[in-house]
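Bench notes, afternoon.
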Amino acid sequence: MPSSQRSSVFWIDIVKRAFDILVAGVLLVLLSPLLLAIALAIRLGSAGPALFAQERAGQGGTPFTLYKFRTMRLDCDPFGPSPKSGEDPRLLSVGRWLREHSLDELPQLINVLKGDMSLVGPRPLYVAQIAEWDERQRRRLNVRPGLTGLAQVSGRGALTREEKLELDVQYVERARLWLDLRILWATAAQVFGRTGIYEERYSRTESTRGERDMEKDRTKNTS
């Protein structure tokens, strides 16, 4: 194995994991008052749990449970088609605010500590969506999914799904410490600037249905 590849493996498997644990642990401690305040606001504004758990595809396509703050009402289908905008009628008032400030993603720091995710990497998508990807796009599964990634700082809501998948693969091909640090810095600037939150362009081939409908179709096709 060339020395450059050995260096990359060392970074991804050891240094990157140690960095994830350190940063995620410190952030969870420092942000604990904010996390508790958000949880309380959700519970006071809507009956039901403060956290929303959903199955996503992890490294190698292995499913894991992703955590987010709940931003939608309980009397709606969270897996249905979404307008993908701030006008989504399913959103709680506090949920819209959380999304605009990207605070609904903070519970994924727990996923980072558990090893399901990394601070930086391709965003975790639905397991059922893997079937829609070509061989190159599936290379995004070679690393842990991330809290933020190259696609999120390269256009975010202005990108189609295909463009995001290509940037995910480019990240896998270029993964280095300096790139992760650059992405984290750009993410902080983007969050504070509240840019690219909602999708502006839509893929022509991406299924916009939820995972529940995709599962129904698979059941029909095999029956």
